Amino acid sequence: MVKIADVAREANVSVATVSRVLNKKGSVRPETCERVYKAIEKLSFEPNMSARNLRRNETRVILIVAPNITNPYYAHILAGIGDEARKSGYSALIYNTGGDEEREKNGMDMLKKRRADGAILLASNIDSMWVKEYADKYPIVHCSEYVKGLDIPRVSIDNYKATLEVMEYIISLGHKKIATISSSNSYISTLLRLKGYKDTLERHGIEVRKDYIALAGAEYSFKSGKAAAFKLLQQKDRPTAIFCISDTIALGAITAAKEMGLRVPEDLTVTGFDDVDYTTMFHPYITTVAQPCYDLGRKSFKILHACMNKTNDIEKKVVLPHKFIIRESSAPISTCD
Amino acid sequence: MVKIADVAREANVSVATVSRVLNKKGSVRPETCERVYKAIEKLSFEPNMSARNLRRNETRVILIVAPNITNPYYAHILAGIGDEARKSGYSALIYNTGGDEEREKNGMDMLKKRRADGAILLASNIDSMWVKEYADKYPIVHCSEYVKGLDIPRVSIDNYKATLEVMEYIISLGHKKIATISSSNSYISTLLRLKGYKDTLERHGIEVRKDYIALAGAEYSFKSGKAAAFKLLQQKDRPTAIFCISDTIALGAITAAKEMGLRVPEDLTVTGFDDVDYTTMFHPYITTVAQPCYDLGRKSFKILHACMNKTNDIEKKVVLPHKFIIRESSAPISTCD
Hints:
By secondary structure, chain A is of the alpha/beta class. Chain A has helices spanning 4-11, 15-23, 30-42, 49-56, 74-87, 101-112, 131-135, 159-172, 188-203, 222-233, 247-259, 293-308; strands at 61-66, 91-96, 118-121, 140-143, 154-157, 178-183, 213-216, 241-244, 269-271, 288-290, 317-320, 323-325. Chain A has a six-stranded parallel β-sheet, with helices on both faces. In chain A, strands 7-6-8-9 form a four-stranded parallel β-sheet, sandwiched between helices. In chain A, strands 10-12 form a two-stranded antiparallel sheet. In chain A, 48% of the residues are buried. Chains A, B: GO terms for molecular function: DNA-binding transcription factor activity; transcription cis-regulatory region binding. Chains A, B: It comes from Tepidanaerobacter acetatoxydans (strain DSM 21804 / JCM 16047 / Re1).
C-alpha cells in the first residue's frame, strides 16, 4: 500500500508538506502543490480517509433522516439537499426511519458514532424533545417539520398562512359545508393546517363540525385518504368541499367521490397540499399549495453547512414562499345540484 | 471527555479488559463484564466508534446505491434491505445517484474511504465494467439489475421468463398487433424484457415491427410513457395491445389512450410490470408482473452479509419467483370494435 511517505519521496518534499496539501491547510507554493498532486496520481495514492478524518474530526458526510423516502413529497427536497451538498464536497446519505421514532434515534446515533458531521431531519414530531440532546452536541437542521420550542434552525413554508389562502378561496366559491382530511401524525404542519382550517371557518361564522374533520394515516397514504373521504361523504348532510392536507389524500378523496358517483368538481370541491408530480397526472388536475421543495432542501443544507463551520449569525427560522395553484378539482358551489 | 482508562479505573479492571468487553472479543468473566458495563453507564462513556472501527476495520454501515429513490418500485426493496440489516446490527444508508454514472462512482468511493463495509447496487447499467474495480476489493451485491459478465452476486427475478408469460397471455387473447414501450436505459431487465417481447412474437410467426417499439425515458416516467403511447396510438395501423416494461409507463399509456378517446381494455389492452402500489389505485386496475420486492431486498442484504463475513459458498445468482397478475387493463381482442 502506498503511504504518505512514498508520495513525499516521489514529490521530493516533506511528509508535512504532503499533509498540508491533502488537508488544504497552511501555505504551500502552487508549484509544490502541483508536484504533490502529480506524485499522488502517479502512485495512485489513496489517503486513508478514516484515519485522516479522525484526525480532522470530520467525515464530509451529512445524514438526511427521513420517515418514508418513497413519499413523492420528498423527491425534490432530497435532490435539493444532495445537489447543494455535492457543491460543498459533502455526500448526503439518507437514513430511512419508516416513521418510527426509535429508528429516528438510531439514525441520530450515527452522529455520536462520528459517521456524519451533521443531520437534516425531515419529519420530527412536534413533541420530540429528545432531539435537543443531539442538537446540543451536533449540527442539526429541521426541514419542513420541527420540534416546537427548541432552538434548532429550521426551514419551511408558512403552513398556517397557506391554509388560510386555500380556505378563503373555498369559502369565496360559496361553500359552507367544508370538511377537512387531516392526519393522525404529530407534525407541526398537520397542526397548523388544522388550526388554519378551524380559524378561517370561525372568522366567517361557520360552525366547526366534528363530523367534518376526518383523519388519514400518519403517512398520508392514498388508501387512508380514500377511507377518510368515504366516511365524510357517506354522511346524510355531506360536505360540498374537502380541504385535504396532502395531495395523496386529495387523490384518495377524488377516487372515493368517483366511486360514490359524485363528480369532482361539480358535486364536490377537493383541494390538496404540496403539489407533487401526480397532481397533474389525472383529471381533474388538483388545486393545491405548491411548496418550493427543491429550495427547501438547498437552504437546509446551506444552513447545516454554516452550522458545521461554526459560522456566526446562523439563520434560525427560514420561511420560504409557497404558491397557491387553482386547477380543476375546485369549483363554485352554484354548479352543485 | 470520558476515556477508556477512566472506565477501567471505575470498574477496577485493566484497559485491555474494557477493550475486550467493548469489542466482544476474548474471554471476560460475566461479573467483570457487568462491572464494566455499569462503569460505562455511570460515566456515560461513549466509545469513539471511528477510532474503534478503524482498528476493527469495520463501520457496521452498508450503502444502498440507488438511481431514483422516489420511484415507488424501490419502496419495498429498501424496506427489505433496511429491516434485514437492522437485524444484523447494520445501518443501511442510501446514496441517491439520480441515475448519473459519475455519482454512482462517487457513491462507491465511500467504500474506499471506509465509510461503509459493503454496498448493494440497485441499478447498474449492463455494461458498467468499472464496477469490477470495486467488486474486486469490497463486498458488493447487485439487486434487480446487474453488470453482464462480472462475477458479482446478484438477486433478481427471471425477467425473460416473466415477459414470455405476459406475451403468451396477450397473444392468447387474440391480439396480433402488439406494441411495446421499452426504456432508453441500459438495464439488463430492459434488455431481457425487449428480447422476451420479440422472441414470443417470432415464435408465433408475428412480425416484429419497428413502429410498434417505442421508448420511454431512462427513469420510466409517467410523462415519457404517455408520450411514447401517443406515438404508438397515433399511427394509422395502431396496435390493439401494449406491453409496457413498467407500471408507471403503463399508467401513462392508459392516460394517453383515454385522452385519445380509446377505452382500456375494450379498445386497447395495456400491461405493466413490477406491481407498485398504484396499479390498484385507479380503474382500470393494471394487469402486471408482481416482483417480490421486499424479499429481493432481504436476500440482497443476506448475501452481502455473507460476503462481508467472508463466508464460503456465497450464492452468486439468486432468482426469486415473480407472479403474473391479471386485472382489468387487458381483454380479448373480440371485445374490440
